[in-house]
Amino acid sequence: MTDLSAFEITRRWPAQHPDRIQLYSLPTPNGVKASIMLEETGIPYEWHLVDFATDDQKSSEFLSLNPNGKIPAMIDPDGPGGEPLPLFESGAILLYLAEKSGKFLPADGAARWQAIQWLMFQMGGVGPMFGQVGFFHKFAGKDYDDKRPRDRYVAEAKRLLGVMDGWLAGRTWFLGEDYSIADISMLGWVRNLIGFYEAGELVGFKDFAHVGAWLDRGLARPAVQRGLNIPPRP
């Protein structure tokens, strides 16, 4: 039986199935990247809720796995060379699970690098900018009298949506007909922008018809629907 006791995090979140990937997460736009990917690939895993309401992500146990204190994080008991692999950062997790499963990332050639470039686009642009829109539109930032910070991020969110919309014209997914980690990385963020953040009107989302159609296609996937609610919120 696999022994994960060397990992401090398992003291706070014991593994019931230590032979499976251990996922430590919450269904945020970054968190669901991992859960959607695991559901899409069918790799066996066990989820553990990291509850922000109780500052789980700041606990010593969680920080022992991810010193950056962010979700998602994971342990693969059967990592490279058969050794357990601890891993954090959602983009790295997507790449790792794609390599492990042989799914949703072309094995070589130009298409592989196109998928990676769109993943980097999400990590460097979509996530940070959409998140700032959420802060300044829905959370504490909405009470700031000075609306220039909000407007700056709204303008950048619109620009990014325009880039996405132009690219998706005539394409089903970011790689054309092939669904990939590029799509998985962005679905939760676009869904949150117009849903949880309630910023659809603010960014003029109806003007980005190709993005809207892509989002509908993604949300229609059963694995996406399951992954969006893993781990269930308390």
UniProtKB/TrEMBL annotation:
Q: Where is the GST C-terminal domain?
A: 108-234
Please list every transmembrane segment annotated in the UniProt record, as residue ranges: none
Cross-referenced CDD domains: GST_C_Ure2p_like (cd03178), GST_N_Ure2p_like (cd03048)
State the source organism's domain of life: Bacteria
Task: Fetch the PANTHER family from UniProt.
Answer: DISULFIDE-BOND OXIDOREDUCTASE YFCG (PTHR44051:SF19), GLUTATHIONE S-TRANSFERASE-RELATED (PTHR44051)
Q: Identify its protein family.
A: Belongs to the GST superfamily.
Q: What is the name attached to this protein's record?
A: Glutathione S-transferase N-terminal domain-containing protein
Q: Which organism is it from?
A: Sphingomonas quercus
